[in-house]
Amino acid sequence: MRELQKKLRKDESILWESSPEKFALLEGKKLSGRILGQWLITLGFAAWLFYVERNRPEFGTGMKLLVIAVAGAIILAPVVEWFHLKNQRFCLTDQRAMLRTADRTWYYMDYEKIDSCCVIEDIAGGSCIAMGSVIMDDVRRQLRWQACHPKMDLQEANSHGESMGMVFYLPEGAEKMVRIMEENGVKVSRGH
Q1: Is the dihedral of CA 18, 23, 28, 34 positive or negative?
Q2: pLDDT single digits (tens) 68-103
Q3: Which of 67, 90, 116, 178 could bond 133 through an S-S bridge, CB–CB 3.0 to 4.6 Å?
Q4: What residues contact residue 12 under an 8 Å CB cut-off, 6+ apart?
């Protein structure tokens, strides 16, 4: 990975690289039920609004377009999230954990700044690694969202990708990754 080489510090070496395991958009009963339920509720609500709009002439084309836009965004959100997750890359060096998002932005956490790290089982059935205490309260409830959006300190203008919390979503070789992190002084718990 040539772009990764450009992101390394002087005297920093790569110990492990990976990408997410293959996973389906609707994998797992809980996940598919949640997404399908969200889609059905959205379509039902949109149908109801169109019915109401049809009987009330004061709602015009603008209202129809707004309903279509909102329904489309809600329906497409899981697909966009899936695309972003499957195109991530993960790396461990001898100094830090690094994450490349689908838009090719690199984020990192130095090992000494990882104050909390745990292995979490995703509802799709694989292991995810969450880092940074700032995300631990919500990470189970918003695992995929947190994996797509590393937590940054917005008040620190010079961070250049330094993250306060991030998730490696279903990395291939997760156990090897955990071993490397522990060898570099990160305490990793299982089952947050």
Answers
A1: positive
A2: 788 788 878 888 888 899 999 999 999 999 999 999
A3: 116
A4: 93, 94, 95, 96
